[in-house]
Design a protein that fits this description.
Blueprint lengths: L1 H13 L17 H9 L4 E7 L2 E6 L1 E6 L2 E6 L12 E3 L4 E4 L8 E5 L2 E3 L2 E2 L4 H25 L10 H22 L7 H19 L13 H17 L3 H8 L5 H5 L2 H41 L5 H44 L5
Antiparallel strand pairs: 1-2, 3-4, 3-9, 5-6, 6-7, 7-8
Length: 354
């Protein structure tokens, strides 16, 4: 029961700012699609919640190089409201566009023309990922410290260290080792890093307030980088037999001369990491979007009142709790699936001729 109460409190904290996001209302109706997108997408400021008419925002550093050189300042220097042209003006002719192709991005206005500067700003996703990395390092270094102070003959650790050891042993013995086979040990550090990095970001993304609340693994640039790392490791680990099966497979000669099969095999080199990227991105983004949409039901039917409002609100809360519990399971499953498929791809690349 206490876990249900905790989840309900987290949900309420997460969506305290929703009514105040009536800035996204059109014609008195709540724009739920804009609210969902606003919570999922990346931004230059970290919106925590809204109390009354006051938005509580964590201002993040802007780091850009425009035509006039490098500029480092806080997002607080951008105007809160956009002007008639759709720009939240800031210093040095820099602004955040609110419409057009560069909507949500920093642009430099040169004689009324938008020019994208070189932008390495610390956005919400980057800030959350930095916090998650610190959390991940603590989760790993605390057990490592215990092992440095104990011998192999000592009793097995308990508590947090024992829990982390249990997860590592499960992933290595049931995912990495069966997928790669002999010689899996040198790939374990990379694959375990992928597993714990994804799991930490997924779990921290469920927490609706700082230092959590970031949609890191629901950002396609993050999943693209993870898939790229697996792609590089897989190709570097490829044996002669692996490359032979791609460019000169064991098929009838006409299929080799007319390179239908080699072409399919070559394309599969890129479709495998692409599938890794899209699977993780789509599942995590969809989970956040569904949970937000279910909660929006409360505000959509708020104007109806009476039994309809109470009934739909109760259904929304129950479904949101169910989605939050399901998200906890999905966090582990997605980390496990990414690690499992990466180990299988590496294992296939290391296969030798029988």
């Amino acid at each position: 029961m206490k876990y249900v109460k905790l989840i309900v409190c987290m949900m309420m904290l997460s969506f305290m700012g929703m009514p105040a996001m009536a800035a996204s209302e059109e014609g008195g109706k709540l724009n739920t699609s804009e609210i969902v997108v606003e919570h999922i997408k990346d931004s230059y400021a970290w919106h925590v919640t809204t109390v009354g008419d006051k938005a509580i925002v964590i201002d993040l550093p802007v780091i850009v190089r425009s035509s006039t050189g490098w500029h480092i300042f806080s997002t607080a220097r951008f105007a809160e409201e956009s002007d008639v042209k759709g720009y939240r003006m800031g210093p040095d002719n820099l602004a955040i566009a609110t419409q057009g192709d560069n909507a949500g991005k920093i642009v430099e206005l040169q004689n009324g023309v938008e020019v994208r500067p070189f932008d390495i700003s610390i956005t919400k996703t980057v800030a959350v990922m930095m916090i998650n990395v610190v959390v991940l390092l603590c989760c790993i270094l605390i057990p490592a410290r215990w092992y440095r102070r104990h011998k192999a003959s000592d009793p097995a650790p308990g508590g947090f260290t024992g829990f982390i050891e249990l997860i590592i042993d499960y992933v290595e013995e049931n995912i990495i080792k069966p997928g790669i086979g002999n010689g899996y040990e040198k790939y374990s550090p990379y694959l375990l890093t992928c597993f714990f990095f994804i799991l930490t970001n997924n779990l921290m993304g469920i927490i609706p307030f700082p230092p959590g609340g970031g949609n890191v693994t629901g950002n396609i640039t993050i999943t693209f980088f993870l898939a790229l790392c697996t792609f590089i490791v897989t190709q570097v680990s490829g044996t002669k037999h692996y490359w032979k099966d791609i460019f000169w497979p064991e098929v009838p000669l006409p299929l080799k001369v007319f390179p239908l099969i080699p072409l399919i095999e070559f394309v599969s080199i890129f479709t495998k990491p692409f599938a890794l990227m899209i699977r993780l991105f789509a599942n995590m983004m969809a989970g956040h979007a569904i949970a937000l949409s279910l909660t929006c039901i409360i505000f959509v039917v708020a104007a109806i009142g009476g039994a309809t409002f109470l009934g739909m609100s109760a259904i929304s809360v129950v479904m949101s709790i169910f989605m939050m519990c399901l998200e906890l399971l999905v966090c582990f499953i997605q980390a496990m699936v990414f690690t499992m498929l990466s180990s299988i791809f590496i294992g296939l690349a290391r296969a030798k001729a029988e």
